[in-house]
Amino acid sequence: MVGTKGFAPLTSSMSKKRSTPELSARFRILYYLLSPTSAKLRSSVYLGAHVSISGGFDKCLDRIVNLGGNCLMTFASPPRTLKTKNFSAAEIADYLRKKAEYKLGPHFFHASYLINLASESSAYVKASIASVIYYQRLAGTINAQGTILHIGSHKGQGLTATINQIVASVNYILDSSPKGIKLILENTAGQGGTVGVTFEELSEIIKRVGDRSKIGICLDTQHAFASGYQLGTALERFDRQIGLKFLSVIHLNDSATDFASRRDRHANLGEGKIGLENLRDFIDKCKSATKICPPLILEVPGDNHTGPRKTDLDILKSLAN
After folding, report:
1. b/e string for 48-83 if b means 16 or more Cβ within 10 A?
2. Domain 48-320, what fold?
3. Domain locations along the chain
4. Does residue 233 or residue 6 have the better pLDDT?
5. Per-residue model confidence (pLDDT) at position 14
6. pTM of the shown model
């Protein structure tokens, strides 16, 4: 008999044939997929994924609906360049019409991976700022939530040597952003001297920002795990060091690397080192600790790194219900 939090035990004949962590993980995923609540979206929680805008800006809406999500995250330009792309008024109108038809929830942008507000090159910092401002203004045009940002790398200099430059850049972006559009800083796994590996680093930046009403935090579960935060206590530590009022969105990902590895490698839910039970426990804690649970967005590899699948959203639904 299957319990509310467990998985039906293997029969003796099955366990004799094969008893491996991989088999256990696959059965556990199957259990979550067969859960009576797995096909239902809980109205109080937005669940979504990172999807592509390939083929037309409004195509991202079709993709998230086909996956079964009710919120989404996209790039607004190629992710490995600071060059931006202009969308026509007709493209924006098509997007807004379709989003209203689908009755979708929040849309978050993810900034280019090449952004670095801690760079030693002033020209590069200026180009990074310009790219983020473009994203922020586009977010204002389509009524998106804002832009999720990897702050960048200090390349071994340390936060102390770069924080003034980072804060000045953040303030300039905020001053250039439309009203109500948030700049959302993301925690990092810690490889390559990336800024935001600890909650203390993010807190130090927020404390120095001029208009904190425009600042949010994206908490990535894989990054937190890889940087040395146990998910069971991560939210408590986040609240103590930053404050849950700044938690705008969660990237819910499993980890392909070990705890405290400081490596940014995502895994499909239930196929990594964090595991489904710990992810479910994290979501439960988040729902109980916050008045309104922030949107949960998948950034998992799917099949052959093609991105989140409907199966992944179904698992997320089962975890969140």
Report:
1. bbbbebeeebbbbbebbbebbbbbbbbbbbeeeebe
2. TIM Barrel (3.20.20)
3. 48-320
4. 233
5. 37
6. 0.88
